[in-house]
Design a protein that fits this description.
The structure is a homodimer of 214-residue chains. Chain A has 214 residues and is α/β, with parallel strands linked by helices. The first copy, chain A, contains 8 helices and 9 strands. Chain A starts with 10 loop residues before the first helix and ends with a helix. Chain A binds a DNA duplex (24 and 24 nucleotides) through helix 3.
Chain lengths: 214, 214
DNA sequence: TAGATTGTTAATCGATTAACAATC
DNA sequence: TAGATTGTTAATCGATTAACAATC
């Protein structure tokens, strides 16, 4: 009966960490060695308190009057996010968006390694995208176990999203990065993170609309 | 001195509206005519209260014991989001992601019409992507005014994001859909909506990490 | 009518912001 | 030392959830 309701870290805070990381890397390239939370806040349009709270989450301790060492900050954030070690992933659904993600260079910084992709279209199966093979979806489980892959990117059309997620779960996938505009139902313990273009566009569009009337 | 602090609608609520829309369209295809908030909630893994609050935002009024007419719901949500009328947009930065967005069919449902794209690379300028021309970035302002475009999609590399945004603002753009992992600074009144892949990946990754330790 | 559903008003929960003591 | 910065504890704000009256 362990009351391990261990307060998850606030999602908004976690979402800000990559912003800090990218600014810190820029400073490091400029040979800067130390930075204060105030300085970070100014650059990113946040408040100092917010930055300190967020950084505290990673367990880092700064020095009053000085601030934080950039190298130390970077490694603390990376460790907290699990970006210090390579995470192997598969991608399912080699359409426009899937292809774009396969070609996205930015994932190197986040240590995400998309080893292979899967599709059901005979036209695509057997080809390669930037050195990574496209396998038939039927081989997903076999390959996931062979390569010990625990993370999957889901970029199939909405109507196939749930069944694809089911297949991923059956193959032992622990985390699904879902780009389909669908609410996935998965067993407890499986982590789903949604990227919803239409949700984002909705916010932009609604704001532009109400702006007009003002 | 008008105290027009007119309570903006909650972002989380706005973000859920496209989910409702997609479910409602599916029901409509199945010739269903009426639906209750409880039913919507079940399907999307939400609570009935939440759904009613969200729908109330669009100004729709339902009928006790009955629920809502699907057609009426769809049109209320579409109007609220401004998806009932076509929104013309430009895209700047024809890389992997930009190309994917240009090819994304889903925007038709959201009535977003990407008329043209812009880039600085001579290899790309003058070509077409799915019938839409790629112009040199230097012609952005001219074209924006000519076609009365008020919405721009920003898919350039991080280091060029701010200057591109400045150029967009100068050209009279009212809303920027920003895919660069950068905090943009824009004049008041200009709307920026960020899509941050790295923020989303951070949440997934951190969760998978802490899952492991449990 | 009885029961299901809507929609409002109040309570809770969580994130942000403010205040301030500790410290180099 | 004085001043800048950290990090904690308390207050505020906003979104979600709960309770419940209204209604077809």
């Amino acid at each position: 009966m362990s009351e391990t309701k261990e307060r998850a870290y606030p999602v908004p805070s976690i979402r800000r960490l990559p912003l800090y990381l990218s600014f810190l890397r820029k400073l490091r390239d400029e040979k800067v060695e130390v930075v204060s939370s105030t300085r970070i806040a100014e650059e990113l349009g946040l408040t100092g308190i917010q930055v300190r709270k967020d950084l505290a989450m990673t367990g880092i301790v700064g020095r009053p009057k000085i601030g934080h060492t950039i190298n130390e900050l970077v490694s603390h954030i990376e460790c907290f996010l699990g970006w210090n070690q390579t995470r192997r992933a598969f991608l399912v659904g080699v359409g426009h968006l899937g292809t774009a993600l396969l070609g996205y260079k930015g994932f190197q910084q986040e240590n995400l390694d998309i080893l292979a992709s899967f599709d059901t279209s005979p036209q695509k199966i057997g080809k390669e995208i930037l050195g990574r093979p496209i396998y038939p979806l039927s081989r997903f489980e076999e390959k996931a176990k062979e390569l010990n892959v625990q993370c999957a990117i889901l970029t199939v059309p909405a109507q196939f999203a749930q069944e694809t997620a089911d297949l991923m779960v059956k193959a032992g996938i622990q985390g699904i990065w879902n780009f389909a505009p669908v609410q996935l139902f998965v067993p407890e313990g499986i982590i789903v993170e949604n990227v919803s273009l239409s949700s984002s566009l909705a916010v932009l569009s609604q704001r532009m609309n109400s702006q007009k009337t003002v």
